[in-house]
Each structure stands twice: as structure tokens, then as C-alpha cells.
Amino acid sequence: MRPRYVLAGMSHETNTFSPQPTTIDKFCPLSSNGVLLERDAAAAALGGTKTPFGGFYDMLVERDADLVIPLAAGAMPSGKVTDDAFEEMAGRITDAASTGPDAMFLALHGAMVTETHEDAEGELLRRIRSIAPDMPIAVSLDFHLGMSPDLCSNATVVTGYRTYPHIDTYETSQRACSTLLRALDGEVDPVISWGVIPLMTNMLRQTPLHQPMKDIMDRAIEAEASGEVLTASVFGGFPLSDISHTGLSVIITSDGDKTTGDALRDELLELAWERRADFVFDFEPMASSVARAASIAVGPVVLADHGDNCGAGGITDVMSVLEEVIAQGLDDVVAGPYCDAETVRVCLDAGVGAEVTVELGGKVDMPAIGLPAKSMTLSGRVAAITDGRFLVEGPMGTGTTTELGDTVLIESDHADVLVCSSPLEPTDLGFYTHIGIDPTARKYLLIKSRQHFRAVFEPIAAEIIPVAGPGVCSEDYSQRTFEHIRHPMYPMDLDATMDVIGN
Ligand SMILES: [Zn+2]
């Protein structure tokens, strides 16, 4: 009899400092008319795409098996997921588990926090395991997460992204998928070793492209490639979430020999702990960064405002950096996209070619960091209007369709400003080219992103300058009150010791 597999995707990175709750409609792409994707629609939208779901799907359809898809849902990072949304999504997956499949493949994130559960993925795995005690489960995860006992003890194989920008999401799922398929074929016997240490890394110091993370990730990759273990993943953690299980973590799957996995886990965690001071980021004041940009002669200069980046839960409507850029007299600037549906509506009503004066951005208060909403007045000409849809050709999410909603370009004296209706991080040049902007021909590109923009903007940039704008993604962690993280936690507690939680 053909085996029956369940494939599901449920992804959210929760910034617990964001004031915007994440409701179920946020998990429905604009093109789905507000419906969660499942079955054929999920396969059509994501099969063949360079996404976590696509990685599993493409490998599983090659298998002589029945494939059940109860859910493929993902929302942009934002505030806590509502209980209603979580129960709807988790319910679809546990219902599928209760039908007795031979295995389950899950593309998750690892940083979802709901109104009730600070460890939503762990809660999901715990529920699945209570229904199907012996069912093999493969899980792929983002690099930014909180690793938890419920997640690790209830899965069979777990893998995580090894890049940041995340350009290996597809391969990450394929690593988990192929390992579990080998286990189902009786070739290997996966055993998990995992651990998390009290080290809150700064997101601007996390990328495996550079030290201090490079050596750590390279060792994990080498251990997996050589066959020392089945899979090895290191996770930078997600410091914008106030949860008890935050920290840098490692998860290893070894072949029937936990001793080997434990040894590699300890080696990787000890290496990270030795380098803990290097994971601290000393940021430059916003005005100094903009002044530095102003002194550069040749563009494009990318100004990356990382404090209000929707890719980590930012609102995408804090205008402080654009105001500073204009105040310091930078010219030939393209800025955005900012998310402001009200301003888009004004421009749509006015039409292309019309002169408008808008109160741009600043629609949302951020009480968790004491930042009130503040818009800026912008006058200019509506130069272009689009539906905000384009096919991603860059390395992040290749083949997926970006949906910014109705999008407008306002030409003003000092800056051409892009305004959209649905927040998305600019991870593809299509954000600009789809509305007629050639980013290579402009002096300054002011975007809201921390790291992911580098996948496509680094190759075209003469210079990149991170700018510490205000927002719920600010790297200044002293702005927020952490009530739930464990202590001692480095660098908040400089006397912290390497106290490993794991198995
Ligand atoms: Zn991530």
C-alpha cells in the first residue's frame, strides 16, 4: 500500500514588542481572497518555489506516496498571534495527524508566540505527539527562533537555515525531508541532541557570512557534509521576543549514536560562548550614519533602517530616518516602501500626475518602547501606481509572487517615496523595478531592512550604511523591558555562565 504523508507549513516570527496582533487574515495572501492555502492551491502557489514548503513539496512529490496538505500559511513578522488564528491553523494540522499518516513534514518558523502560548511550535508538536505517539516528524525552522523542549523532544528530525540573508530555506527543508525519508526506508536511525545557552546575540552580529558566527556554522556544515552526523544546525536566536526560552541554540541529528550528537552540540555551544562578547553590536546614532552617507560621492548608497523593519516585526511607517535624510540635504533619494494604506488611498483617488500633500506614515503607537505615532508631511507628484504584484527573481523566495497591495510612487523635491498597502521587507530588486525605478541609477536607496536586503542590494551597492532608526526592531535592547527571559542572560548580565538547557 502506498504510504500517506502530511505536509504542512505554518510560519510566523513574533515580535512581542509590536502593538499589532497577528490575526488569521494576515496568514492569507492577498491573492487568496482571505482564504488559508491548502491542498491544490498550496501546491500551485508554492511547489517549485525556493521556500521551506517548496523544499519539502518538491521532494515528496517525487515519492510514490499520497500527499495530504492541510495548510500552508505564513504571515509577516508582527505582534502575538491571536488564539483564534493559532487554533484554526494548529487544528488543521492535528486533524490531519489524527487520520493516521505514515509521517509528517512541517515547515515551521520556531519564533511564533500566541496570546496563550509563548512556544507555539512546541505546543503544536506536543499536540501532534499526543495524537500520534510514534509517527516520524520532520521539521524545518528559521535561523531566528527560541529552541524549546516541546519542539525538540517531539520531533524526529529538525533542521534550520544556515544563511542570513536566508537563501537556503528550500535546502533546509530538503535536508530534513531526505533524512526522514532515509529513516522511513530503514537506512538511518535519527537521534536528536539539542541545547540553548543564555546568550542573546545581536541580529546585526549573527550572520554566518562573518565572524563570530562563521566558524561555528562552518563547523556544523562540515560535520553534516562529512557524515559525522545526519544534520547539524545552529540558530542565532530572536532577541525581539520576550520569552523564557530565548538564546543561541544548536540541534543535531545523529545516526543512532547520541554521544556523537552530544559532543558536537557541546563543541558548537562552547565555541559560541567563548565568542559571546563578539555578538554584541555597538550601534552608531542615526544622525551620524546619515551624515556619513552624505559625505559619500558615488552611489548607490544603501541606507538600511533596521529599527522599523517589517521583516522582524516593524510597522514600516516610522518616518524619522527619511526626515533626517531630508534635513541633512541628501538628494536623488529613493525611499521605501513605507506601509500606509491611507496615503495610498489619497494617491489612488488623486491619480497619476496629480500633486498631493500627504501625512505620510506614523499611524501606529508603539507603547512597549515608548514611541508615539508621528507622521511627516510630504508634498509631491503621484508618479506611478501599481497593484504591487511581481514575481521574485532574486535568491530569496525565488519564484514566489510578492504582494504589496496597491502601491504608489510619490516624487518630491528630495526623494522619490514608495508607499504600499501591505508591509514586506525589500528582499528583491522587483520592489523598485516593478514600479519603474532603476535602483542602480540612484544615489541613495533608503530601505527598511536589517540583513535580508543584502541578498540583492549588496551586489549593486557602492556602500551600505546601517541606520539605527527608532522602532520595535531597534538594536538598542535597553529600550525594552524583558520580563520573561531567563537570567542570568548575556549581555544583560555580564557575569552569566554557560548554563545549557537541552537534552
Ligand atoms: Zn529569520
Written description of the protein model:
- The longest helix is centred in the middle third of the chain and has 17 residues, at 258-274.
- The chain folds into two domains: 4-279, no CATH class; 286-474, no CATH class.
- With 503 residues, the protein is α/β, with parallel strands linked by helices.
- It has an eight-stranded mixed beta sheet. Strands 2-1-3-4-5 form a five-stranded parallel beta sheet.
- It contains 13 helices and 19 strands.
- 26% of the residues lie in helices and 22% in strands.
- Strand 4 (137-141), helix 5 and strand 5 (157-160) form a beta-alpha-beta unit.
- It is globular, with a radius of gyration of 22 Å.
- The structure holds zinc ion (ZN).
- Residues 142-144, 166 line the site of zinc ion.
Separation of termini? Answer: 37 Å
Bound molecules: zinc ion
Mean pLDDT: 96
The largest pleated sheet is described as: 8 strands, mixed
Please count the helical segments: 13
Query: What helical percentage do the residues reach?
Result: 25-40%
In total, how many beta strands?
A: 19
| Amount of beta strand | 15-25%
Largest beta sheet: strand ordering:
11-12-15-16-10-17-9-18
Shape: globular
What's the oligomerization state? single chain
Structural class per helix/strand content?
alpha/beta
Q: What's the structural domain tally?
A: 2
Low-pLDDT parts are: none
